[in-house]
Design goal:
The chain is built from 4 helices and 26 strands. By secondary structure, it is mainly beta.
């Protein structure tokens, strides 16, 4: 059974782990302090705890920072952290502070650079789908356009970690379902606020996108991120159900509320050229879950590493790096947010899966790592949210989104 079938198990508690203290999937916890192998928990709020511990990996010990989040606590919730636009970045501590979060970790992989396309602006937008406060922000880019390590077999850019309106966390897939109705007929919608559109498609950009240029959406192909930008592009601006402007190349700048910019490449561009100013156009889009029938309050991308208590087959067991991950237990009611310390070694993805299982996770999901890995929180007696781990780049990296923990 997979996460696409929406199953849950009863996760082992941290107390069970402390009693066992065994080696699991090649990963054992060893004491951050000589007297104990346990995370040294600090209560941040009712239902939210912070702890640290060491993990023994193939490349040596790694130091982990963990948030334990009990979603059964009435005042506790998790939401998407993001800077207010899809194509924007800010540090986790700044995002958490701006949104009033108690703590948070970084989220999805993202369009961090454009060395293959000189002169094209990197958007900073994330790879996978995103939902904030129940509102769909974006869809997933084609698999060949993603940034980050190779995906494990059987996973895709549509994989998400999310929390439903029932306050239960899940792993799932979210697929874009949309269309553009024109006087000439119905066109499938290939993307929503994405830094990369499928070849030959039409994508929609809304005010959620931000100010960044939309040119990057027409670069690369479905299988090759570095492929040249398309020379056959077109965009139209739709407001109140009618085309109000058109251009031969994708533009930039803010998109007004209740306005949609349609960007086409190749066959999609050819279809948009048929629309004159004043043409009637209706754009429809939604994200469809593969498993859950419960609407998502928030979701973000990454990829699964643990399902039903078992590590996914084919996980990388050679490359050690700084990592961020989120685990689920107790039927989706308990979360473990883990970020490794950039100053104290790293783990392979296979070792991350083992560490998350040892913490008590039944399902676990890998998020962006390396210089992005950050766990920030407001500790008791302090007034600000700060990074508690040491980011591997020496300072917090601006990222497009994250998981925010709120209390109150």
């Amino acid at each position: 059974m997979t996460h696409r079938q929406g199953r849950f198990g009863a996760g082992r508690s941290v107390l069970t782990f402390l009693a066992a203290l065994g080696t699991l999937a090649g990963t054992a916890l060893v004491g951050a302090a000589p007297a104990s192998a346990a995370p040294q928990w600090t209560r941040l709020a009712t239902g939210v705890r912070y702890g640290q511990f060491d993990i023994s990996g193939a490349a040596g010990p790694a130091h982990a920072h963990v948030l334990s989040v009990d979603l059964r606590a009435p005042r506790v919730r998790v939401e998407l952290l993001y800077p207010g636009a899809v194509a924007a970045r800010a540090t986790v501590s700044r995002q958490a502070t701006a949104q009033g979060a108690l703590a948070g970790v970084n989220g999805d992989f993202f369009n961090i650079s454009e060395t293959q396309h000189p002169g094209v602006e990197a958007t900073g937008a994330s790879v996978g789908p995103a939902i904030a406060h129940g509102r769909v922000l974006k869809g997933a880019v084609p698999g060949g356009q993603r940034f980050g390590p190779a995906l494990p077999p059987g996973t895709s850019t549509e994989d998400v970690f999310g929390v439903g309106t029932d306050r239960r966390a899940r792993l799932d897939d979210l697929t874009l379902d949309g269309s553009v109705r024109t006087p000439q007929g119905l066109l499938p919608l290939g993307g929503l606020n994405q830094y990369a559109l499928p070849v030959g498609s039409v994508g929609a950009f809304t005010s959620d996108w931000g100010n960044v240029s939309r040119v990057r959406a027409t670069c690369g192909t479905d299988t090759d991120r570095a492929a040249p930008c398309s020379t056959d592009t077109y965009e139209v601006t739709v407001r109140a159900g009618h085309v109000i402007a058109a251009a031969g190349t994708p533009g930039s700048g803010p998109i007004a509320a209740h306005t949609t910019v349609l960007v086409g490449r190749e066959a999609g561009a050819q279809q948009l050229r048929k629309l004159a100013v004043g043409s009637t156009v209706k754009v429809r889009h939604r994200l469809v879950a593969a498993s859950s029938r419960v609407p998502y309050r928030f979701a973000l991308g990454g990829y699964p590493v643990l399902e039903d208590g078992r590590a996914l087959p084919g996980l990388d067991d050679r490359t050690s790096a700084t990592r961020t991950a989120v685990g689920i237990s107790h039927g989706g009611r308990t979360l473990y947010l883990l970020a490794l310390d950039g100053a104290h070694g790293g783990l392979t993805i296979a070792e991350v899966a083992g560490a998350m299982r040892t913490l008590g996770s039944v399902d676990a999901f890998s998020l962006d790592g390396g210089g992005s890995t950050t766990l920030a929180a407001r500790l008791p007696g302090t007034s600000s949210v700060t990074a508690l781990n040491h980011p591997s780049g020496g300072a917090e990296r601006p990222v497009p989104n994250g998981i925010g923990v709120f209390s109150g």
